[in-house]
Task: inverse folding
């Protein structure tokens, strides 16, 4: 499991690359893979 799997976006599955900022806003310093 990836560490950021706990941070589920409103949409299921990984967000598009344009919405990668969603994870940065939710948890700064977190990089998606």
Result:
């Amino acid at each position: 499991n990836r560490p950021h799997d706990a941070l589920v976006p409103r949409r299921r599955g990984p967000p598009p690359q344009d919405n990668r900022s969603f994870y940065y806003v939710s948890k700064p310093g977190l990089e998606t893979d």
